[in-house]
């Protein structure tokens, strides 16, 4: 997907038709820093700023978060067309705590990578003990790390439980089982990684949100070849995961905005 393509987005008009810049993206969503690559033209930058602004605003709206909190208390930076990895739509770099979007291939991966950033950020807030620099909450939860006693952390734990375990809590969920099979079929160690399982579950719930469609924010969890192979939770599982997500993020947003 190229940034000059038209994205058939359906959602609220947060900008009221106004042109955004990446400086306004930084200020609105609370990023610590925004970098735009030197090979990005001004026209490309302006078009991308609108797409990124709408996508982040959609994400905040869905999760019932104040927009300013998406920067994770200004610990997260954003890069566009700068420092990307060849052949990769987008990636989260934990060492720099940076979410990077490729200039001409970043569309559809923003929700997935935001979860990675959040998963990394919240690890040290939600779990006791020595937390490694690159550890994520999803890994710690599966490793039976001890939660910091707090109602919000119990709700975070519920997100992991609903996603990763069967309804009776005795077995891996069907979604996890499919991920294990996919790794065997593809000869990889990717699909069943806890961090990737959770990122795909999160983006799947975002794409299934009723009333907003934004292919720049997320795409491919419903009709892609990977979706047909079971790489994402099914519709009924998404509904249960979404209930756990919103039960966590709505009160989290209230806490982070104070």
Short account of what is shown:
With 258 residues, the protein is mainly alpha-helical. The chain contains 9 helices and 4 strands.
Task: Summarize the structure in words.
With 258 residues, this protein is mainly alpha-helical. It contains 9 helices and 4 strands. The model has no long low-confidence stretch (mean pLDDT 93).
Itemize the secondary structure elements and their pairings.
Elements: H1 22-29, E1 34-36, H2 42-63, E2 77-80, E3 90-93, E4 98-101, H3 110-126, H4 137-142, H5 151-164, H6 174-186, H7 194-207, H8 225-228, H9 235-256
Parallel strand pairs: 1-2, 2-4
Antiparallel strand pairs: 3-4
Can you give keywords for this protein?
258 residues, mainly alpha, four-stranded mixed sheet, globular
Distance between the termini: 38 Å
Mean pLDDT: 93
Structural class estimated from helices and strands: mainly alpha
Content of β-strand: 5-15%
The count of helical stretches stands at 9
Helix content: 40-55%
Global geometry: globular
Strand arrangement in the largest pleated sheet: 1-2-4-3
> What is the string of helix and strand elements?
HEHEEEHHHHHHH
């Amino acid at each position: 997907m190229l940034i000059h393509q038209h994205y058939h987005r359906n959602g609220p008009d947060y900008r009221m038709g106004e042109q955004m810049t990446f400086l306004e993206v930084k200020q609105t969503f609370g990023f610590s820093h925004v970098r735009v690559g030197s090979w990005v033209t001004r026209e490309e930058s302006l078009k991308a700023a609108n797409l990124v602004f709408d996508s982040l605003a959609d994400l905040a709206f869905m999760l019932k978060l104040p927009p300013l909190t998406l920067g994770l208390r200004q610990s997260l930076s954003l890069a566009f067309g700068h420092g990307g990895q060849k052949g990769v739509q987008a990636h989260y770099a934990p060492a720099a705590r940076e979410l990077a979007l490729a200039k001409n291939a970043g569309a559809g991966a923003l929700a997935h990578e935001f979860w990675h950033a959040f998963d990394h950020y919240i690890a040290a807030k939600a779990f006791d003990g020595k937390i490694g620099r690159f550890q994520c909450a999803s890994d710690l939860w599966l490793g039976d790390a001890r939660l910091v006693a707090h109602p919000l952390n119990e709700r975070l734990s519920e997100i992991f439980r609903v996603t990763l375990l069967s309804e009776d809590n005795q077995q891996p969920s069907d979604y996890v089982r499919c991920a294990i099979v996919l790794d065997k079929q593809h000869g990889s160690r990717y699909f069943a990684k806890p961090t990737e399982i959770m990122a795909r579950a999160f983006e799947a719930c975002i794409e299934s949100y009723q009333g907003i469609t934004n292919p720049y924010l997320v795409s491919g969890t419903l009709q892609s070849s990977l979706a047909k192979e079971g790489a994402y939770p099914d519709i009924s599982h998404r509904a249960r995961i979404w209930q756990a997500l919103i039960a966590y993020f709505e009160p989290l947003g209230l806490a982070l905005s104070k």
